[in-house]
Amino acid sequence: MTPAAHQNIAFRTQVKKRSDKLMNFFLPAHFIIGIGLAFFYDTWLVGAGIGLTCIVAYYTTKWLLPESSLYQYVLSAVLGIFMAQYIYQMHGLFEMHFFAFISSALLITYQNWKLQIPLLIIVVIHHATFSYLQNTGLTSIYFTQLNYFDLQTFLIHVALTGVIMFICGLWAYQMRKYSELQVKQAMEMTELKKEAQLSLERKRNEEILAKANSELQLYNTELKKAREVADRANQEKSIFLATMSHEIRTPMNGVIGMAALLTETDLNEEQRMFTETISGCGETLIHVINNILDFSKIESGNLELERAEFDLRQLIETVLDMFGIKAAQQGLDLIYDMDEALPTNVIGDQLRLKQVLINLVSNALKFTERGEIGIRVFKKASDSKNNVTLCFEIWDTGIGIPKDKAHKLFTAFSQVDTSTTRKYGGTGLGLAICKRLVNLMNGDVSVTSELNKGSRFVFTVELSAGSVHAPLLKETDSVLLQGKKILIVDDNLTNLQILKRQFKNWKIEPVVTHSGTEALHALSYENDIALVITDMDMPEMNGIELTNIIRRNYPAMPVILLSSIGEEIAAGSRELFTSILTKPIKQQVLIKQITNALSRHVSKASENPVQKSLSEDFAQRFPYEILTAEDNDVNQLVIRQILKKLGYKTDLVTDGKQAVEAIYEKEYNLVLMDIQMPEMDGLEATRVIRRIDIKQPVIIALTANAMENDKRACIDAGMDDFIPKPVKPEELMKKLLQWHELSTRSEIVAP
Asked: What is the DSSP annotation of 634-699?
């Protein structure tokens, strides 16, 4: 609803209230006139009865329908009835019909011409009915005191009444139109005042803006000068830091290097202690210098992230290896748990991710005296562009962090304990650098902690999934391990849960026990246990004591020992075990040692030798018609021999042109395509093959270039995959297995 409409409604409401208030005087006055006439003409029944009925009718309608205008029409009819009442009470004094004109004038105040209609109808009906009845001779009807009232007189009276009421209605209509015009003009005047005020305000704002622009230009000039000064200072700072770094590192390299050489000479215990202290302090100082330089680069915006493909699991294992000796000295378990669904290789800045992990694990070691420290990695999100958001959790069972001090953790040069008697050292830069590095990798970092129970740091980073590598298990190893029962003995619940989940992923059936006693009990009722994996350091019975008992009761049972770095194991005790693995356990090493242990066990228990990796039945299980395009004689021989060992025969061509011709003559479902060949290279040959109307083969590039741009060129040309040179049998088998499975799936899905 427009503002003008709102204003009209408000005005109409005021008119209605004023008119209603006026009628509250005139209507009772009509009733009182009727009572007064009753005194003189003894017409109490008519005066009181009809008058009171009219009053009640009007106020009842108004009370029941307060928002409606119906009561106004009732009022119009009531005023006409009062006129008829007065004529009757005065025994036909016809002049009392002037009250109809008075009533018509009163109704003008409502500014509604339609209110004249009920009054006019009452007047016409009254005049017509009562004049007719009186002329017929009825003695109880009073309309006029004249002896006659002919039709001509009736028509004249009705016409005059109509004209008067028409004029009153016209006045009401004109008053309403004039009122609406006044409202409209008032609204327009208000708008004009607002516009004038806005114009004045706009002019004032323009003056202020012009003044502000002038000041801003001056400020920008000063800011530009200040920025130039800051840039020069930043450059000078960078040069200074680089110079200081060189000047500090040069003597520090001498200190650390000479200390390392000194440890190789004959030293007594005291001298060796001094030398190790010098070396340790030097490494600490280098670490502090690195942190300061990194923080300076990040703050100045000069730190750029690299993008290269790396093995995520290998990175985590390398980080934990760095702290293996120190963790063993403190009696701590180092554990990592990586989701099997994660890509083996990812693309990102390996060095900076490693730096974040080293800082967090180092902090955990510093503040943990007993228990365990672990890293858990899982996928949080992924998108259609091959980007994955990885979540890293680093937990410990250390001293924890008070809630009121947690906000200081990621602030540069700030520490939880700032007292001069603090137990733990540090610059307060490590976690601040971690936070900034994680932010640069489109992630975030947070911490939850409970005092004296440990802390949990969680950070996310955005990386890209790398190329698919060979699975952890070879096909032959998977067959060997599937369904085997392996007994795990460890008092660390976290380590047990991780090993249990890994074994289930490898289709191994784990039998979990928490002590040597439980393990011996499990061996007594589980007859088909193929291997025992035991921890070294356990309460009541350690790994060596348990294995001695196993050797007496189950001499052929292979046993793998999990030992912390630095634990002393006597030479005689080493012979008890098939192999000894150091913590933290590397998955590749673990699966290899399990496979080796079970393979030796199987070869002793059976006369049949272990199946070789390159078996000739591979081609029967995964059939291919293969074309190899390779111009180098040695490479041709290598590929042909590998395929022959797998049971395949391949057709050989020496350039891309011959490859295209061979495709026309014979249907192949796999092409091994060299990239660099005479006549027509592998990329051009692939483009031509993709344009031919045939059942398209899988084309795998053979390339000595493993850079990202080279791989992208292969895919853009229409190739399905690539194998880096020199060609490894395992890599080729993996590709054959992978594309056979994909081809089978597509045939099943296809209608």
From this structure: HHHHHHHHHHHHTT--EEEESSHHHHHHHHHHS--SEEEEESS-SSS-HHHHHHHHHHSSS-PPEE
